[in-house]
Amino acid sequence: MALSHFPEIHQVLLESTHEVLGKGQSGFLQPEEKTFLTELERLLTEQFGTLTGRGMAIRMGRSGFQTGLRRWGETLGFYSLDFRLMPFPRRVRFGLDQIARFLEERTSLQINIHEEPEHWIVEIRQMPSCTRSTSPVLCSLLMGMFQEFMQWQGSGRFFPVRETQCVAQGSPCCRFEISRKPLE
Ligand SMILES: [Zn+2]
């Protein structure tokens, strides 16, 4: 599955992989966009097993968010005074909307965000032209990205993120619930 039509996003993914796995391991991966996620999934599962492999993909998503923040944070308005002065819930919503638009413009993902009393909800679909099923490794990368975004916004506090529906399990979309309350 090709996630990105935008080489810079693919580059961030590659860098995150190198950072978490070390070049010795990740050097086995083909750097081409088309097969990258499938190969990453296979490598992680073979080397570390499903559970640890997912944990590593989450770390890659976290690292990818930090890299993306350094590269595009300014463009996305994340360093503006207006943004920093917003109340926390508005700032989170604005940030999630900005990330969603950014990814929609550059990948095959369609992202919908809405709010519930206890959670921010992020629903992610592939564009109809990309009918092949999503890869669980992508879900873990996205989960890590949301975790890191929330920790950054919440001054280091940890906000639980759960994936409650997944395309890989037959659901129409991948649905992430981001808790409005940090862990004590
Ligand atoms: Zn999923």
Automatic annotation (TrEMBL):
Domain 4-vinyl reductase 4VR residues, every copy: 108-180
SMART domains: V4R
Protein name: 4-vinyl reductase 4VR domain-containing protein
Species of origin: Anaerolinea thermophila (strain DSM 14523 / JCM 11388 / NBRC 100420 / UNI-1)
